[in-house]
Amino acid sequence: MIKLLNLVIARSVVLLCLAFSASTQAALTIEITKGIESALPIAIVPFGWDGPRINPPEDVADVIVSDLLSSGRFSPLPQRDLLARPTEGSEVNFRDWRLLGAPNLVVGKVIAKGEKYKVQFQLFDVYREVQQVGFSFEASEADLRRIGHQISDIIYETLTGERGAFATRIAYVTATVLANNARFHSLFVADVDGHNAQLIVRSKEPLMSPAWSPDGTKLAYVSFEGGSAVIFVQNVFSGARERVSAFKGINGAPEWSPDGRRLVMSLSKDGNSEIYVMHLASKRLQRLTNHYAIDTEPTWAPNGRHIAFTSDRGGKPQIYRVSIDGGKPERLTYEGRYNTRPEYSPNGQHLVFVRGEAGEYRVAVMELETGMIQVLTDSRLDESPSFAPNGSMVIYATEHHGRGVLAAVSIDGRVQQRIVLQEGGDAREPAWGPFLSIK
User: What is the pLDDT of residue 26?
Assistant: First the structure.
């Protein structure tokens, strides 16, 4: 029990204090470190522009290229290889694109309409010479990048049959040190490609364990602003926040129920770290575990009926599952001596977690029906895995050249990304947000 508690505390210190930087920038840059060799070629033509400026305020086609490239499943043709620059279907000569070996073609244009912009695009099957999908959007200048992500999602789903997640957001924590040696911890929200970083809260004390509400409007997180752990819930749009758990001892690892009405968390208010559910409207607590071991890092199953969590009740940190109604927990992991920080996939069929072996900590995924485990990463200090809302990728924290960075890996391990702060510094504790309603 003491060993796991010390391990949890040590991991928190590592996550938040590994390497401070003089940079206070929060924007992220994605680097593709591993992709699929058979990635699908696709031609994305620079969008046409009809407006008073020389160039449009946002390069929508470039957003689409970056999105599809980052998935590792597509290989956009370089602009220099494009034989023509059509902006609508009537201008397309399919023979040109067949010569390039591109089975799919995207064309579009941006049209200024007063203070608004009209963005239209078409996706063509080059070999069948038919339009597969086409849409027109109206947006403000500030929303052009979001429209680009939505177009990427439409293309991705049309060609793969799987819903895209480019228009979603991530939350993450940065730790920085200023010129006067003042240390700050900051919680940010950004587009999934790292753009449009938004500061949620900044503190001289640690911030950790951000968790998205199911509707994407709120974050629950742990703050040590007053010198002890407190769980807050904060609206990411208005900034309004509420202190929901400030019991003596540990207030940690909050996560939302699928209906958004409850939080599961680890509390030590009764002397030992146990798993509790808080009903947010009444603040009523429901205790789920009762054991002399340390129970922590709870995560809610998508069906709302189970909670998975980390416990050393078997002698070593392993992952267990308990019914939302309580009862005897069921052990889920047996392979390996160290398995922690679980999270369910959106469809509830997999569990991602951190597996430790010989001093190295890597992201692994388990198929719950069979118990089969696959290690997805080959780094040394991975933490905080979080599923994309479509279940295709997992974002996590790791180290690269002595810096704390974020990374992402596909559920089959074939696609890997590194996500770093543009101006240096360290990023930790990522949480991938839910799908957002298209407005």
Answer: 66
CA distance 335 to 318: 9
> What does each C-alpha distance from 411 to 90, 326, 366, 394 come to in angstroms?
40, 31, 10, 7
- Residues linked to residue 369 through DSSP beta bridges, in sequence order: none
Q: For a pLDDT cut of 70, what percent of the chain falls above it?
A: 92
Question: How would you label 279-289 residue by residue, b for 16+ Cβ within 10 Å and e otherwise?
Answer: ebeeeeeeebb
Q: How many CB atoms lie within 10 A of CB 212?
A: 25
| In contact, 205 and 17? CB cutoff 8 Å | no
Coil, strand or helix at 249:
coil
Residue ranges of the chain that CATH labels 3.40.50.10070: 37-160
Two tokens, residue 261: 């009405």
Residue 113 to residues 57, 95, 138, 301, Cα–Cα distance (Å): 13, 34, 9, 46
Q: What are phi and psi of 274, to 5 degrees?
A: -130, 170
In words, the CATH class of domain 2-27+168-432 is mainly beta
CB–CB of 245/230 below 8 Å? yes
Q: How far is it, in rounded angstroms, from Cα 42 to Cα 123?
A: 10
The number of CA neighbours under 13 Å toward the Cβ of 25 is 12
- For the stretch 189-224, pLDDT in tens is 999 998 999 999 999 999 999 999 999 999 999 999
Task: Count the alpha carbons within 13 Å of 206 in the hemisphere toward its beta carbon.
Answer: 19
Cα–Cα distance between 339 and 400 in angstroms, integer?
A: 22
The residue with greater pLDDT, 28 or 348, is: 348
CATH code 1.20.1740.10 for 37-160: no
DSSP state of 434: P
* Distance (Å, whole) CA 97 – CA 42: 10
- The 8-class DSSP code of residue 91 comes to G
In angstroms, what CA-CA distances link 279 with 244, 287, 299?
10, 11, 16
Using DSSP's 3-state secondary structure scheme, residue 278 falls into: strand
The answer, yes or no, to whether residue 178 has pLDDT greater than 80, is: no
| Chain segment 265-291, per-residue pLDDT in tens | 999 999 899 999 999 999 999 999 999
Burial of 44 (0-12, 13-18, 19+ CB in 10 A): buried
Which helix (H) or strand (E) is 68 found in, with range?
helix 60-70
pLDDT digits (tens, 9 = 90+) for 49-92: 999 988 999 999 999 999 999 898 999 999 999 999 999 999 99
Sign of CA dihedral 418, 421, 425, 426: negative
